Amino acid sequence: MKISEYAKHLLLAPNLEDKLLPPSRQWEEETEFTALRIETPGRSTKFQFSDKKVKIPRLEHLGLESNRGLSLHHFANHELMAIELFAWALLAFPLAPKSIRNGFLKTIEEEQTHLKLYLQRMREFGIDFGDIPLNYIFWKQLGQFGSLESFSAVMSISFEGANLDYAQVYAQVFSYFGDQLTSDIMLTIFEDEVKHVKRGLRAFERSVPDNTNHWDHYLSLIQFPFTPRRAKGYLYLPETRSLAGMDSEFIQSLGNYEDEYTGRVNLESVKKFGLGETILRKNRLDSHSPNL
Asked: Which InterPro entries does the record match to this protein (predicted)?
C-alpha cells in the first residue's frame, strides 16, 4: 500500500474500525504527487458532524462517572478529527519533506491509540461514541490550510498545543477524584502530545523568514476569527511548551495573549484542585527526547 492510499482509506472509510487501521511499516513507492484536498471525511450516520452545541461537564462535577464519560467523548471526537486531518495533510502536501510525512504517520498512529483508550474507558462509564452530537471544530479550519506551515500552526501549535494544558488539567482532576486509571490515560496522551507539538514545530520553523520572530510568523499563518486563544487552555501551563521545544519568546507571547474569552475559567475550581502548581509526568520526558 502507498501512503496516499492509506490516507484516503482513513479519510473516506465510514466506520471507526477502518479509521483505526495503523500505518504500515513499509510503503510502496509513490508515483503521483498531485495535491488532493478532500473536503469532508467519510463517516457513517452515527458519526456525522452536528451543529448542536454540547457543553463539557465542569471540573467540579467530574466526581460522577457519567460526567467523566461525557468528557472523554468530547476528547475522543478530537482524536478522530486529528486522525482524519493528518491523513488529509498527507494528501494535500505530497511534496512535504519525508521527515515531516513520517512524523504525520507517527502522529496518526498515536492518535489512534488515544482514541482506543478513550473508547474503552468511555464504554466502562456507559457511553458509546456517537451517543452525543459530534462537533467539527477542527474541520472548520480547512480553509486555513493553504500551506504545510499554516496546517502546522493550526493543528500542531494551536489545537495540540492547547491539549498540553487540557491533558494536564484533566489528569490532575481525575486523580483528585480518585480515578487514577483515567488520570493515567490523560498523562499518556499528554506525553504523546508533547511529541506532536514538537513535530509540528519542525514544519513551522522551517518557514520562519529571516528577521521574523516565531510569534509574528505564527500570527501571519492563522486567520481571524481563529486566534491564539485556541493555542492554550483556560489554564496556561508554559512549562509544557518548553517540553515541546517552543521558542521562549513565543511561550511568553502566548501566555500574555488575551481576548474577550480570557479569564472565564472558574478560579475557585482552579484553587480547589491546585491546578498549575505542578506538571504531572509518567515518563522521563524532556525537550531533548530522541526518536520523536
From this structure: DUF455, Ferritin-like_SF, UCP012318
